[in-house]
Amino acid sequence: MLLFLLVGLCLAGCSSRATPADSGPRWPDLRRDRGGAADRGAAADGGAPALDLWRADGVGPDGGSPRGWVQAKLRFRALYDVACVQGHVFAVGAGGEIYHHSPGAPPRSFSHQSSGAGEDLYTVSFADSDGAVWAPVVSGSGAELRAVDLYGALEGWAAGSGGVILHTGDGGLTWDPQESGTGADLNGICFTSADAGWAVGAGGTLLTTTSGGAR
């Protein structure tokens, strides 16, 4: 699986450190209901659910009566994720499509960017960049990566099918696997510090770490 990084840093976040004394999984499973409905819905093409672009600008399409959300009319391919950084907006989706909205541009104006590959992009995350250049990076995993989160300029985690969790400590240049302790597909991951993180997935799977995923 390829990860897509920006020049600057982008892909596709308890201050205490507690490392388990035993040899158990470094990502304990916190789920309460193994029959839960945390599975990610499938799109019509069998991929992740499409995400249309909407903007909460409070203005109608004619500039008149206010509305909560106005559709951006961007329907070329299925879109799976969107991220905002320094006033820029990036949407990613099927076939490696990337769409960019620049600061100051009309609310529903998006330009196309090339990712350099045709694989579906399920997630995008930024540390500090304007998204000018994208380049593929080999993850070393054959899993379908569905979520990524970056913390600071160097630390990042990606999660995906089969319980795969990958970690980078060099800004996304290289990635190493971490033991998640589950075989469930993971659809989301986030960190609030370099130590404290959560991952969620199929069947109500909920994992947590207080050591950045390291033992």
Description:
The structure is a single chain. The chain has 215 residues and is an all-beta fold. It has a single domain (2-12, 24-59, 66-209), classed as YVTN repeat-like/Quinoprotein amine dehydrogenase (Methylamine Dehydrogenase, Chain H), CATH 2.130.10.10. The chain is 0% helix and 34% strand. It has no helices and 17 strands. It has strands spanning 2-6, 10-11, 54-55, 70-71, 79-85, 88-93, 98-101, 111-113, 125-126, 134-138, 145-151, 155-160, 165-168, 176-178, 186-191, 197-201, 205-209. The strands form six sheets. A four-stranded antiparallel sheet has the order 5-6-7-8, with no helix packed on it. Strands 11-12-13-14 form a four-stranded antiparallel sheet, with no helix packed on it. A three-stranded antiparallel sheet has the order 15-16-17, with no helix packed on it. Strand 11 and strand 12 (155-160) form a beta hairpin. The relative contact order is 0.25.
Write the layout of secondary structure elements.
Elements: E1 2-6, E2 10-11, E3 54-55, E4 70-71, E5 79-85, E6 88-93, E7 98-101, E8 111-113, E9 125-126, E10 134-138, E11 145-151, E12 155-160, E13 165-168, E14 176-178, E15 186-191, E16 197-201, E17 205-209
Antiparallel strand pairs: 1-10, 2-9, 3-4, 5-6, 6-7, 7-8, 11-12, 12-13, 13-14, 15-16, 16-17
